[in-house]
Write a structure and sequence with these properties.
2 copies of one chain form a homodimer. By secondary structure, chain A is mostly helical. The first copy, chain A, is 65% helix and 0% strand. The first copy, chain A, contains 9 helices and no strands. Chains A and B meet through α6, α8 and α9 of A and α6, α8 and α9 of B. Chain B binds a DNA duplex through α1, α2 and α3.
Chain lengths: 202, 202
DNA sequence: ACACAAGTTGACCATGCGGTCCGCTTATGC
DNA sequence: GCATAAGCGGACCGCATGGTCAACTTGTGT
């Protein structure tokens, strides 16, 4: 059998542990931000600290895995939204989902300020997401409802902007909807004013 | 002399040291974010670590002092902008100054995500700033150039939003101007759509 | 049933942090 | 000048963290 896999498949309990670890990490990060200790995550997952480092050589790579996972989640919902009938509504819904993600996950807000984004894994996920955003924007733009000088990158940026405005503090009241709408209005074609062009390097 | 100050005035060198400390802290925070060590700041200021803690009992209070200082800077420029002829331009310029502040200071971006904002000193400065923003917004709104349902709080929020969008990474190219304009367009009266109301608690 | 490798674990280590303390220096008032 | 207390500094402490390791457990193929 020439096409045989060289390495044995991972043990069953290892797979289980990995899963609990990922779940625990996702929860812990969401609740307390990216600076929860590895020990705490391990405890939460019901496994030893050593096991964590067996699955992820470093804490950085763990966080990278979680963050990139979140990005991919959003990319997936974005991709399904590409099938939606109304491009404008779809774009708004996409952005809404993005902000919701940020609001429900403290670590995700911090991620924007941190070096995690340098990580190749995260970079890749971000690029995938960018592609989806670009497609969604394209559709809306083609329909003329969105100003012509807006890129997918812009949409992503404005999305993170909206959730920043959403007051990451005790405000669970959903004030972010207000700001998202405000920003979304700025994206609309009607009443648009010319935008300063992006500097050459970008 | 009944109105005499109870405590002796601080020593001259103490004043000097305090000043270097503040300058060093401001620079260090701006460059490396809020997690620079106290020792590093002390070294940078050319004083001992103990001296830092003499002036500020805790690191938290140091950061609070710096952050509130920055907020006050912005409040000052805002106040002078109140005298400007064109309310719209004034508002835009105010927001521009705010974003510029964020972009030039890594710690300031992080501050939005952290607990520093709970600190009473910071709270007070933020309130002062809020007042100025409210006044500036009022003027612009009264002239009808800004949509009617916008508050000063909104302006502040959108300001921090803009600088979040400004890609706090290596991007020194000033792409944030683009996003600020985009957001500012969303604040304009023309083409505005009704905003979802703020939840009751806010 | 067995042997063995894959996997687990928690004690352990090095490091870096915020914060303390006490002996020393120095500005200040007379 | 001198006495005095305000100010200074850096060795030091306790603590938490990311990461390692060697002894032990357990799933798996035969």
């Amino acid at each position: 059998m020439p096409a045989e896999s060289q390495t044995r498949p991972p043990r069953a309990d290892a797979v289980r542990n990995r899963e609990s670890l990922l779940v625990a990490a996702r929860e812990a990060f969401a609740e307390h931000g990216m600076d929860v200790s590895v020990s705490e995550i391990a405890q939460r997952a019901g496994i030893g600290k050593g096991t964590v480092f067996r699955h992820f050589a470093t804490k950085e790579s763990l966080t990278a895995a979680i963050v990139s996972g979140r990005l991919d989640e959003l990319a997936v919902t974005g991709r399904t939204l590409l099938e939606a009938a109304d491009p404008e509504a779809a774009l708004l819904e996409f952005m809404t989902a993005g902000v919701e993600l940020h609001v429900s996950d403290r670590s995700f807000c911090q991620a924007a300020t941190t070096d995690v984004r340098r990580d190749p894994v995260v970079r890749a996920a971000a690029d995938r997401l960018s592609g989806v955003a670009e497609a969604l924007t394209d559709r809306a733009r083609r329909k003329g409802v969105i100003r012509g000088d807006i890129t997918g990158q812009d949409v992503i940026r404005m999305l993170t902007a909206a959730c920043q405005a959403a007051a990451p503090d005790e405000d669970v009241t959903g004030a972010w909807r207000r700001y998202l709408h405000l920003i979304f209005d700025g994206l609309r074609a009607e009443g648009a004013r010319p935008l300063p062009p992006l500097p050459p390097t970008a």
